[in-house]
Amino acid sequence: MIDISESIEACANHYGEQADAMRTYLLEGQAAALALPNRGPLRFTESGALADEIRAAYSEYGFYVFENVLSDEELDDIKADLDTMRAQFPTGPESQVNAAGEPALGADAKALTLVWSKPLGDPLGGTELANGRHQVKMFEPEADADAPMAAPFILLGSLQFSDACLRTYAHPELLKVTESINGPDFAPFNEALFIKEPGIGAAVSWHQDGVTHWDSPDFDEDIHGFNFMAQVYGSTAVNGVWVLPGTHKQGKLDIKALVDESGSERLEGAVPIVCNPGDVVMCNRQLLHGSFPNCGFEPRITVNFGFHKRSSVLGVMGGGIHSDAQVFDEEIVNRRSRAIGYAIDARKQRFPDETPYQYRPLLAAANDYRWSESARADLKDYNIDDLSI
Prior knowledge:
- By secondary structure, the protein is of the alpha+beta class.
- Strand 1 (39-40), helix 3 and strand 2 (63-66) form a beta-alpha-beta unit.
- 29% of the residues lie in helices and 15% in strands.
């Protein structure tokens, strides 16, 4: 694992009188996370289902760390795309041009793409944004004097901007995991890049992702789907996502009460998701999770993409977080699923010796989903149809 001793000290020092408490919290959380029996290589049964022990651990804790999923070659592709995208980012939250004066990434997008924050801020906590699910505001340390006024921290609709992320989206073993959890007719959710640069990366307040099915008579631990979190540079107690294990089974939580009981946003029993580069986390969307501002020295870039059970979205009124509230009919679900078809072919072109995943809902029309320049044009603004529940 990455040595983050210096980052822990730097992070603790940003918390003033709470420095000792924060240092202890980070160290104890890291040790507790590494002691959990929910990490290891991807393994499947002879029939192709996710190994029973992995499925059981994911069900118990709400997350699982799959180790060494992405090769160095695939990580290098993602890093190259990240460099290209950064050069295309707008110069600020209100800008439509990049540093070269050219139209910026997403400048003509119909859906929200780049989300900004003040350095080390918590732009969502304690607001009504995202249906008010971020109930509390995280502590916002003072950033260094040379920090920018604002920094990008989420890029939505990332598949239209990065071929490398599109190919990772179709990783055949990850899609086999998805089939094991959500069935062969699984549906997409949304995709994003989470950007936590050293010294400026924003916090994401404690929250649960699901908004639609909390009172459903069919409620279960998987009804709001899950996210894969592929780590480009690794994830630590300082820059990573923290979770409260097991809360994905407990229904809608009173986060303010949990903070009051703990005496701060350092929730008792929470652990960080600790990963090396190339590891991929499967995280239940109902699991209580959040992240502290990145006061340390290591970057975190997470390639995030999620999936649902088709029964969770078909005929359901969307939650309106990633797309306008609408009833998700067959046409919308199938239209949104085309990204999976394109991704499978894009990956096949890049890794021709790999056995591609066969996505059952598009199998009869697989030849219609060839990755090309016309397909790239078809993916523009695809995230308008994000299946947000």
